[in-house]
């Protein structure tokens, strides 16, 4: 099975029967990294999953907002990844990528913007398939994702919740990501 099919198969496994909120990130990680939000056997990386779970499920992850309670750790979150993804699914949450394939290594913001802009019609078609005409709230993650998609999706009548860019938690953006996600979700 090619990597894109593996990514799609893993995500379909956690597609909620009734979607309540859709997260849209930029693109999947490089295939060679063999990481994905929906892969349950990861032992490193996985920042988007880890940080999102800290915000959505602080009790289950043992994260207080300032750090872990005694006995809590990233390792513990990874050990419960399958059950956290099942909870994510049961709560009606789902995450997709705006651009279906990984961005090229060392792609500039300009390159990413051009690739994502070119894939916007395909994203719109996927949203139509996933959401139909329902007014499901959407949260856009990452600067390029927000820049390219926010106005276009709003023009389509989509309910984009964040009014500004939400940092991706990778490469040091964890605290800002958690802060902005909590604010958008009003937690």
The CATH architecture is: 3-Layer(aba) Sandwich
The succession of helices and strands, N to C, reads HEHHHHEHEHEH
Number of strands: 4
Structure annotation, total helices: 8
User: What spatial order of strands do you see in the largest sheet?
Assistant: 2-1-3-4
Q: Biggest β-sheet: count, sense, barrel?
A: 4 strands, parallel
CATH fold type: Uracil-DNA Glycosylase, subunit E
Number of domains: 1
Mind explaining what this structure looks like?
With 187 residues, this protein is an alpha/beta fold. The protein has a single domain, classed as Uracil-DNA Glycosylase, subunit E. The protein contains 8 helices and 4 strands. It has helices at 3-12, 47-56, 58-61, 74-79, 81-90, 109-131, 143-155, 174-185, and strands at residues 21-25, 93-97, 137-140, 159-160.
Keywords:
single chain, 187 residues, alpha/beta, Uracil-DNA Glycosylase, subunit E, four-stranded parallel sheet, 4 strands, 9% strand
Write the layout of secondary structure elements.
Blueprint: H1 3-12, E1 21-25, H2 47-56, H3 58-61, H4 74-79, H5 81-90, E2 93-97, H6 109-131, E3 137-140, H7 143-155, E4 159-160, H8 174-185
Parallel strand pairs: 1-2, 1-3, 3-4
Quick overview:
With 187 residues, this protein is α/β, with parallel strands linked by helices.
């Amino acid at each position: 099975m090619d990597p894109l099919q593996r990514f799609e198969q893993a995500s379909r496994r956690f597609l909620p029967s009734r979607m309540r909120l859709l997260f849209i990130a930029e693109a999947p990680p490089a295939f060679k990294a063999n990481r994905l939000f929906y892969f349950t056997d990861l032992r490193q990386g996985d920042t988007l999953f880890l940080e999102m779970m800290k915000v959505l499920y602080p009790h289950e992850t043992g994260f207080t907002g300032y750090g872990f309670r005694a006995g809590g750790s990233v390792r513990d979150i990874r050990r419960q990844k399958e059950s956290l993804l099942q909870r994510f699914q049961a709560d009606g949450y789902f995450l997709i990528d705006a651009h279906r394939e990984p961005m090229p290594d060392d792609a500039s913001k300009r390159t990413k913007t051009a690739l994502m802009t070119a894939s916007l019609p395909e994203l719109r078609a996927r949203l139509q398939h996933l959401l139909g005409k329902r007014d499901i709230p959407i949260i856009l993650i990452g600067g390029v994702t927000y820049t390219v998609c926010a106005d276009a999706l709003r023009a389509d009548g989509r309910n984009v919740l964040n009014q500004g860019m939400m940092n991706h938690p990778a490469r040091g953006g964890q605290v800002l990501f958690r802060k902005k996600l909590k604010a958008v979700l009003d937690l």
